[in-house]
Amino acid sequence: MDIRFQAGGADKWKADIALIPIREGEKITDTCPELDSAAPYLVIAPAMRDVSGRKDEISLIYGHPDLPYSRVMLIGLGREAVTPDSLRRAYALGTRRARAMHLRSLQIPAFTLQRFGGVDRLLEEAVYACKLADYEVSGLKHRKPGDPEPISFLSVNFTGEYVPEKEQAAARRGEDAADTVILARNLINTPANMMYPEAFAEEARRLAEGTALSCTVYDEKQLSDMGFNAHLAVGQGGKNPPRLVVLEYTPKGHENDAPLVFVGKGITFDSGGISLKPAANMHTMKCDMTGAAAVLTSVSMLAREEVPHRVVGIMALAENMPDGGAVHPGDVVTGLNGSTIEIINTDAEGRLVLSDALTFAQKNWHPAAVVDVATLTGACATALGDQVAGLFSNDTELADRVISAGNCAGENYWRMPLWEGYRGRLESTVADICHTGSSREGGAIVAALFLEHFISEGARWAHLDIAGEDWVSEAKPLCPKGASGFAARTLLELGRGGFE
Ligand code: BES
Ligand code: ZN
Ligand code: ZN
């Protein structure tokens, strides 16, 4: 879906349908008098009477084809206060409906957002929602005759002579955010026979080409020479060898700044390894690289947007498979930071690859902050469900920044404790640290405490456990069944704001 802009008044605007959210009980032509000339039929009694504005109600109203708006879709917002969330939902429902009607283009009259307070911020979300709602899992499924085509363009319309710069920039921000999430979804939805560590690395090289990003890929030999033994242990049962991908973006004049470093868990398939997972829903474990996808797509968009902040993305890639050569439960490895780690349950692989990547991040840069993103524990999904992700941090300012970036993105985080009392669960009789506790209870906290072991004194760090959010099992207005791309936009918003 392309985003276009049209100015010059209603008779210049062309698109199949105008999407207009409406509150319950609202008289649309009172609150948006501009609609009087563009769609005068909206004030005619039947339309006025039939539209209630109840939450999620969709009303289609048709006028003479010569009118600027011959089709209007009014989308009910209900009575509650209008929020970015409720607007995203309304525009997403509207887009899905327009697509189901085989329409090819949408328009948003920018003035219709005025009454909700501040056109530009809401326009950003409107564009984001329309574009994301039009996403479909594509590439491998053949299109059947009669299937609705994607919407070709969304036009944002202005009454004045010119398209105002501020609003145009806002719409472009929304478009970029949607593109970031869409790319993440595409990478994540790609099955594990096609999206293995080297294939992911190839995507990173391709995205970095011709941009200000530098991309370095370390293969299994280099990782071995460097001492990434925890990472390599996870991948040693897979036919497709592990990779570490590093993307660096340094804007001119910021060479000496401390970067914001993102670290992503990139398990292209998590079978559990020798501690094999049950068969039910195991296929969703192709999504176990959601963290790495969020890092890749956000960092490459930040470079494209030329944000004035230094950002580094580290993606730890491996497949976790059972095999004669796979790591055994009980094995001990020496991680990159020199700690010996006893591996108890091979299904707790994410924290192993992250431990080396976190060490590497702090060794090579002096980060302003390190933020890791991982589909880390089923326990976090049990604790918080699928609407809010776990956030662990040793720094309140950083935690607050993640929460507000998430608010902006429509992705929710709840701060969880790095509870001291559970640290003892990571004691091992044979090694410096054991990588899982003996009980499932409090598993998200224990995993976060394990990661914290690899964070140096004074380093600012946040860990996002998104195990409940990565996979959507029933279609939502903004996301079909499959990968959600969760956290990609949070990282984008964090990077746009920078962190000193
Ligand atoms: N990738 C899983 C976590 C996960 C579970 C993500 C469900 C998304 C949905 C992770 O590697 C894992 O298997 N964790 C184990 C840890 C346990 C063995 C300590 C878990 O959560 O059961
Ligand atoms: Zn696992
Ligand atoms: Zn995993």
Q: How would you characterize this protein structure?
A:
The chain is α/β, with parallel strands linked by helices and 500 residues long. 34% of the residues lie in helices and 20% in strands. The chain has 15 helices and 19 strands. The protein has an 8-stranded mixed beta sheet with strand order 7-8-10-9-13-17-14-15, with helices on both faces. The chain has a 6-stranded mixed beta sheet with strand order 1-6-5-2-4-3, with helices on one face. A 3-stranded mixed beta sheet has the order 11-12-16, with helices on one face. Helix 4 (84-100) packs parallel to helix 5, helix 6 packs antiparallel against helix 10 (290-304) and helix 11 runs parallel beside helix 14 (443-452). It is elongated and about 80 Å long. The mean pLDDT is 96. The chain binds ligand BES and zinc ion (ZN) (2 copies).
